[in-house]
Each structure stands twice: as structure tokens, then as C-alpha cells.
Amino acid sequence: MASIRARLTTGYAVALVGTLAVFAGALYAARRANVYREIERYLGLQAEQALRIVREARDSGEPLTVVRDSLIGPTVAPRLRTMLEGVPEYVIV
Questions:
Q1: Based on C-alpha coordinates, what's the Rg of the chain?
Q2: What is the per-residue pLDDT for 90?
Q3: Residue 66, beta-bridge partner list
Q4: Could you state, in chain order, the average pLDDT of each consecutive group of 10 residues for the chain (93 residues)?
Q5: What are phi and psi for residue 36, nearest 5 degrees?
Q6: Are strands 65-69 and 73-76 parallel, antiparallel or unpaired?
Q7: Per-residue confidence (pLDDT) for residue 92, from 0 to 100
Q8: 16 membership: H or E segment, kind and range
Q9: Which residues pair with 65 in a beta bridge?
């Protein structure tokens, strides 16, 4: 049978490990939420920039798409593609 001192030490060690586990979980959750917030902000800015470029091209009367091959279908016009190259990782649907 373990002494009182050993049981108390074991109890405190378990409490410390539990507290550290809860703290690590809280840090993980906070960091994850912060990363998701940053990604959302970054993607929002990129989408706004790409949309602004497409609207400017549309308002200027330029064609947004061209059909060069009937099997492939419409593709982004070369001038619009050149303007969108400044926006990293854009996707047009």
C-alpha cells in the first residue's frame, strides 16, 4: 500500500498533466481559429481583387471569354488573363 505522500504526489502529478492537457487544447483551438480567420481574410481580399478586375474588363466592353476550339469551349480572354496574373491563385467559375 502506498503512503499518503505517494498518493498526494501522484494526485498532484495527475492534476498537473490534466491542466497541461486542457491548456494545450485551448491553445490549439485558439490557434486554429486564428488561422481560419486569417485564411478567410486572405481569400476574401483575393476574391475582391479578382472580381474588381473582371468587372473593370466587363465595363470597358472587352470580351471576357473567347472560343478558339469548339471541343474545349470558352476560355478566358488573353487580355483578361494577363490582368488576372497579378492575382495569385484565382479561380473563375
A1: 28
A2: 66
A3: 75
A4: 90 97 97 96 88 89 83 83 79 66
A5: -60, -40
A6: antiparallel
A7: 67
A8: helix 4-59
A9: 76
Contacts of 67 (CB under 8 A, 6+ apart): 73, 74, 75
Q: Which residues contact 88 (CB under 8 A, 6 or more apart)?
A: 46
User: What pLDDT, on the 0 to 100 scale, is given for residue 26?
Assistant: 97
- At which residue does the C-alpha cell 492575382 appear? 87
pTM of the predicted model, to two decimals?
0.61
**pLDDT of the residue at 79:** 86
Cβ(79)–Cβ(57) below 8 Å:
yes
**CA 33, 35, 37 angle in degrees (round to 5)?**
70
* Closest C-alpha to 80, from 61, 60, 59, 57: 57
Q: What pLDDT is recorded for position 91?
A: 67
- Which residue is it, cell 481569400? 43
Cα distance between residue 65 and residue 54, in whole Å: 11
